[in-house]
């Protein structure tokens, strides 16, 4: 146990240990509905991200998978690789400064190796995240969706609209107080283009 604790708090493992804690907190929060999992939004889809990160993930054929899922696995695998490096390689290095240099290289290389490892594992999941695009956001107004988040408030909420395909994840908002909870059906009353959200009302 002492060796394990030493390894997870040794550079570079400690860097990914911190990220891994954030990942765990995020997914626990998502499970209880504290945060939105906007997997249908452009900012979480690697295939719609035109920035450096999106291009980097595309090289490993990880585009088309929600960014939260991809990064979570990259961080996890990077943490494991750094942990193994600290445990097996560091004892063979003579000086502390050599360990630090190796640690910096590991910090750069492990995410690349992690992406190579998880790419063939996640690619079969791509069809699960493909969604049929509606012609316009306003096309959904008047339709019904199922709440995914633990609650829906004036500033928070997520629902799934069944479009005949994989489903469309949308952000929803509702007047308070209300009794809307996960699994409830809600009516989409209007669309706010500025916030990309739908104002909803419980269908009961």
Protein described:
It is a single chain. The chain is α+β, with helices and mostly antiparallel strands. It folds into two domains: 128 residues, no CATH class; 66 residues, Nucleic acid-binding proteins (OB fold (Dihydrolipoamide Acetyltransferase, E2P)), CATH 2.40.50.140. It is 43% helix and 14% strand. The chain is built from six helices and five strands; from the N terminus they run ααααααβββββ. A five-stranded mixed β-barrel has the order 1-2-3-5-4. A hairpin with a 4-residue loop joins β4 and β5. The relative contact order is 0.12.
Gap between N and C termini: 54 Å
Question: How much is the average pLDDT?
Answer: 79
Number of helices: 6
**Tally of distinct domains:** 2
Query: Portion of residues in helices?
Result: 40-55%
Strands across the major sheet, in which order? 1-2-3-5-4
What structural class do the secondary elements suggest?
A: alpha+beta
Which assembly state applies to the chains in this document? single chain
Model regions low in confidence, pLDDT < 50 over at least 5 residues: 38-50
Strand proportion:
5-15%
Dominant shape: elongated
- Based on CA atoms alone, the radius of gyration comes out at 21 Å
How would a textbook summarize the main sheet? Answer: 5 strands, mixed, barrel
For the secondary structure, the number of strands is 5
């Amino acid at each position: 146990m002492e060796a394990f604790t030493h390894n997870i708090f040794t550079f570079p493992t400690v860097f990914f240990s911190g990220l891994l804690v954030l990942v765990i907190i995020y997914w626990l929060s998502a499970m209880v509905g504290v945060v939105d999992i906007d997997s249908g939004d452009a900012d979480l889809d690697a295939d719609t991200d035109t920035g450096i990160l999106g291009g980097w993930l595309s090289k490993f054929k990880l585009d088309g998978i929600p960014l939260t899922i991809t990064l979570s696995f990259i961080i996890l695998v990077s943490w494991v690789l750094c942990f193994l490096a600290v445990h097996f390689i560091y004892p063979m290095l003579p000086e502390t400064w050599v360990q630090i240099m190796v640690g910096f290289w590991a910090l750069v290389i492990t995410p690349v190796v992690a992406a190579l490892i998880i790419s063939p594992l996640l690619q079969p999941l791509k069809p699960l995240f493909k969604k049929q695009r509606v012609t316009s956001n306003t096309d959904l107004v008047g339709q019904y969706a199922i709440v995914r988040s633990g609650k829906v408030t004036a500033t928070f909420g997520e629902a799934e609209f069944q479009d005949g395909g994989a489903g469309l994840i949308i952000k929803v908002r509702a007047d308070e107080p209300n009794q809307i909870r996960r699994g409830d059906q809600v009516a989409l009353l209007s669309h706010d283009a500025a916030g990309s959200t739908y104002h909803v009302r419980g269908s009961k």
